[in-house]
Amino acid sequence: MTKTALITGVTGQDGSYLSELLLSKGYTVHGLVRRSSSFNTERIDHIYQGPQETGRSFVLHHADLSDGVALVNLLREIRPDEVYNLGAQSHVRVSFDAPLYTGDVTGLGALRLLEAVRASGIDTRVYQASSSEMFGATPPPQNEKTPFHPRSPYGVAKVYGYWATVNYREAYGMYAVNGILFNHESPRRGETFVTRKITRAVARIKAGLQSELYLGNLDAVRDWGYAPEYVDAMWRMLQQDEPTDYVVATGVPATVRQFLETAFAHAGLDWQEHVRHDAKYERPSEVDALIGDASKAAELLDWKPEVMVEDLARIMVDADVKQVEDQLAGATVRVDR
Ligand code: NAP
Ligand code: F7E
Fold first, then answer.
1. With a 6 A CB cut-off, is 151 part of the ligand 2 pocket?
2. I need a surface site. Which of 73, 103, 172, 256 has the fewest CB within 10 A?
3. 90 inside domain
4. How many angstroms separate the CA atoms of 207 and 324, rounded?
């Protein structure tokens, strides 16, 4: 039997990789797209199937996590076997500028979706995209038993979504799980997250398109993994006999400075000649160190990461260098397809 999935945040980094994964497994994939005044489907254009095509396995719907009625209607129409809630205002620095919006979409949005599942009366499994940002100030290593101490409106909103998911599991017996994912990156990462900001700048500096890169705190420690491997862990979480929550991480720490060094060196550049400080990119309260312990996922999901931070930096630099070369040659194709 073909399974059906609904993905919120289908146009994002993870939504695009998860769509590819589920399609490769024979799923029919429905994606929730929010309305934008310009195209926001660049990451999924290569798998797009137009409304005129017959027997579509990839179908997009306009809706929004702020609109609970639209969510109920969509769930009643699609009746998915699995729902992946990846939609969010996902930028930590931006969450300080738009805290209420972030709380509404990233926090309350998770509850709206869970309640919409309940209201629509369908039997479906729900994945909630929880985050290592929930651990915030609690020192590493962090695992499923580590107390939360969020340090941003984004982290606070994710804690709300986390507990809403646990509550719907306990109160209604719903198969609802939290994937507590540590930072994961790829050539499709949004351009203002630090890894992509760095690798994109490396490519542009190498091509002579810019000479300086402005950054904030270089001392922060993160556990950076490779997004295509992390969406596989999401899928595995919904295939188990019992619902439970999992940390997904590499366990390998690196500072922003180390990522910089690796990325610039891979292109034959010295980062110290190009990087400048701008306090604008610092946060009112920072998360100093996130290093995950994913032994539960290794044991119960048989999930293990292969791409570690240095290879990740090189993959991203290579992709951005190719993208800049293609752009300069007049082509518009994305590099990772
Ligand atoms: P992303 O690239 O920023 O994608 C976020 C998605 O949410 C986009 O499709 C975006 O649409 C959509 N969205 C934003 N506001 C929405 C709204 N009001 N209604 C419906 N959809 C909305 O994020 P990602 O890196 O793929 O991450 C996926 C999820 O995992 C997010 O919930 C994120 O918070 C969480 N997470 C990410 C990481 C990480 O390191 N990447 C780690 C832990 C948890 P547009 O394309 O139109 O903006
Ligand atoms: O920052 C520092 C910054 O914005 C990483 C999201 O996917 O992962 C992500 O959140 C670090 C921070 O990611 C700049 O202060 C320095 O310490 O790439 P980021 P994040 O805040 O860790 C978690 C797990 C999520 O769930 C989120 O959705 O880098 N940093 N200079 C900078 N960061 C940015 N963005 N820009 C700078 O110029």
1. no
2. 172
3. yes
4. 8
